[in-house]
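hey can u run this one w/ BIS(adenosine)-5'-pentaphosphate bound, need the structure tokens asap thx
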Amino acid sequence: GPPGAGKGTQAQRLQDEMGLKQLSTGDMLRAEVKSGSELGRRAAGIMERGELVPDELIIALIEARISQPDCRHGFILDGFPRTTAQAEALDRMLSSRGLKLDHVIEMTVDEAALTARITGRFSCAKCGAGYHDTFKPPAKPGVCDACGGTEFTRRKDDNAETVTARLRAYHEQTAPLLPYYRARGVLKKVDGMAAMDAVYSQIRETLAANRT
Ligand code: AP5
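ok here u go:
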């Protein structure tokens, strides 16, 4: 799905309710930026411009991550792969571990809705729970539903200018993966314009119907 389609929202809920580990390359990169690591320093400017971080850095990040014990019962890749080179590297990583990709979920959202979703997004500074000014405000204004925290943050790349660049990167580099996975029979389409609970139900049905 394009930026703002709801990938993180749904992956987080699948993690909480199904015990599948959410591996978000965006979150991993933001953690690297925050820690001031060499990778974080290389990635920061690229992310702020809305461009994609080089394939070799992302592939190494995911390869190290899926080898960790918390991934042994399955994992959800959120925001990866995003280029053909990443998809091919994922194929190699999985086959060398005797694993296979069960499902690829495409989340479709009208482009006009994406900017509103992205520019209204914020999260709890303490626990990371995600919110939206209009679509998902905390039950008590200014207080995180999950942890009671009162500090919130907004992502640096969540502004209208960067969204345009992120959408361009999606169309040019990521959308070509749809036919790649459709040809393998693993691609399932979900209507990302529906309400969050309805999107979640669609994904659950998809996973249950094709469980192998
Ligand atoms: P990343 O963090 O992956 O950002 P993204 O793909 O642009 O996706 P978003 O996190 O913006 O959106 P989302 O689909 O998760 O939507 P969300 O659920 O939050 O990547 C950031 C950057 O890192 C990239 O630009 C790139 O530089 C780099 N990067 C990351 N991975 C990379 C890779 N593999 N290769 C190279 N570079 C990489 O929802 C958005 C908002 O909408 C929320 O506020 C939510 O509450 C609301 N919302 C969600 N669902 C609904 C709904 N159904 N109805 C109404 N509102 C909704």
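The mean pLDDT is 95. anyway lmk if its weird
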